[in-house]
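Onboarding guide, step 5: your first structure request.
Type a short instruction followed by the sequence, for example:

Predict the 3D structure of this protein.
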Amino acid sequence: MKKQFLAFAIILLFLSSCGDKGTDNNNSNNDASDILITFPLEDSSLMDTVLIRCDSINELEFNKISLWVNGDSITETSIQPFILPWITTNFENTSHSLFLRAYDHSGNQTESNPLIVNVNNFLVFSNAYGEENIHEEGLSIIQTNDSSFIILGNTAEDLFLLKADRFGNKLWSQYFGGSKVDVIRYLSQTLDGGFLLSGSSESYGPGESDIWIIKAYPSGLIEWNKNYGTSNNEYGGKALENNDGSLFLIGNGDISDTGDQDIWLIKTNSQGDSLWSKTYGGAGDETGHDIISLGDSSYIILGSTSSYGNGGADILLMKIDKEGAEEWSLNYGGTSDEYGQSIIETSDNGFVILSSIESYGDGNNAVNILRINSSGEIIWEKTFGGGDGVKGSNMIQRTEDDNFILTYNSFDHLKNGYNTWVIKINDSGFIEWGRKFSNDDSDFGYSCVSTLDGGYAITGSTFNLGNGNKDFGDLWLLKTDEKGVAALPPN
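The system replies with structure tokens like these:
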């Protein structure tokens, strides 16, 4: 499509140039100016590099033309015919106002009427990163202010951060991890431009498994890392940076040495040194996975509980104040095992919860979306999977238009492998669209993020692209447009 558009613009270049007479006027109030923009037209949708054409009115001769976009001078030319290239990829996907300023040989100047056009650039690609005979996968992804992507990934032996530019070109990767099993799934950017990574480690700390948090520089190099635990097993969830630089870290562990897991909230200073901690739990097991900050200096903790609810594990939602004191708690679930994974606050002070349901038999899990209001009442609920094997994602995200985006993976019996789905759901619970990415072998999407151009980026693992094969996958970065459309990996 982009090539066709550019070819069309080039053809028009040979048909008309500044100074050609008899060109149809597509702008209103043409008599208000001595120069007319003949291409593009009002309210055009543009992409890539556009060739701006003009026509002189009233037989005037010009020796220089400059292009202005949103009040800024972009480029100029003194070479006839006056054709000015505009690289729209340097501009946001939105409406822009442009005009031409013309100068005659005496230094007099005139301006064309302003023109409103729409930039609609979406980079779409499907890239893989990895080495032969090593399985790599992306677990979490964020986009930074410079439009580059930071991906948290792992191999069978190491964890790593990978940075790619907005075009998907790899810029660097930094590896870390010990000799045992280390599991980190949570990634966020800090106020200083660095990164927080949190999870669990069997390589470091006093127990079999301990909570592990890493602070990385913007370069991906480790600034500091800390472990928290006892001689029992502890597991880390999300780390959250407060406005003052202090951190909240949620997880769970057998802190009281009772044999049961309790939710464990740890507050640290900006260097990860523990300031205080709180535990929450009953007679059964509780887990903590996600924590978000609210506008009233309080926090919401999401996890699961087997101490309360309808049996098995149920979704647990807790509100605490800034000192960790519990204000209220709610649980949701049926007779199945349901685990809260990710939570976001909605524009009406309610919440959307992503959870996994593990009651459909071995390997036949489901992904569940729960929308509740500010009082905790269920507004709607959506479930994906259950009849087929489903591997869920790590997060759900709110889009710029107050809808929700997620990715998950469903088993395809015909190819005996997995396909990746990207689903957009509106605030009323209706599916706006769903996109399936399928190829000969399995693909997995584990994290999806809205991008600055209005599209989406998904990371996971592909067995179809790069060095990926049926035994070892490569880390996968899939970039789509605003409708979730992207190129598929080649056969």
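Each response can be followed by summary notes, for example: DSSP finds one helix and 38 strands in the chain.
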